[in-house]
Amino acid sequence: MRTLKEIKCGDTVKAIRINGSGAIKRRIMDMGITKGVNIYVRKVAPLGDPLEVTVRGYELSIRKADAEIIEVE
């Protein structure tokens, strides 16, 4: 499985699973990232942190550590 961290700028992927627990998983789900949602990677910072994504029409920044726990297809 691939994670959101591995996706290149300009690609759209679908979230399959969030492999976390507790506050980290809750924070990601509060952003609107849930199973089956499409995620468009708009921009990746020069050092890879953060990722700028569009989810459900909202522009979000996701830390690299958080992107590692989001499985995509």
Automatic annotation (TrEMBL):
<dbReference type="InterPro" id="IPR052713">
    <property type="entry name" value="FeoA"/>
</dbReference>
<protein>
    <submittedName>
        <fullName>Ferrous iron transport protein A</fullName>
    </submittedName>
</protein>
<dbReference type="InterPro" id="IPR008988">
    <property type="entry name" value="Transcriptional_repressor_C"/>
</dbReference>
<feature type="domain" description="Ferrous iron transporter FeoA-like">
    <location>
        <begin position="2"/>
        <end position="73"/>
    </location>
</feature>
<dbReference type="InterPro" id="IPR038157">
    <property type="entry name" value="FeoA_core_dom"/>
</dbReference>
<dbReference type="Pfam" id="PF04023">
    <property type="entry name" value="FeoA"/>
</dbReference>
<keyword id="KW-0408">Iron</keyword>
<dbReference type="InterPro" id="IPR007167">
    <property type="entry name" value="Fe-transptr_FeoA-like"/>
</dbReference>
<dbReference type="GO" id="GO:0046914">
    <property type="term" value="F:transition metal ion binding"/>
</dbReference>
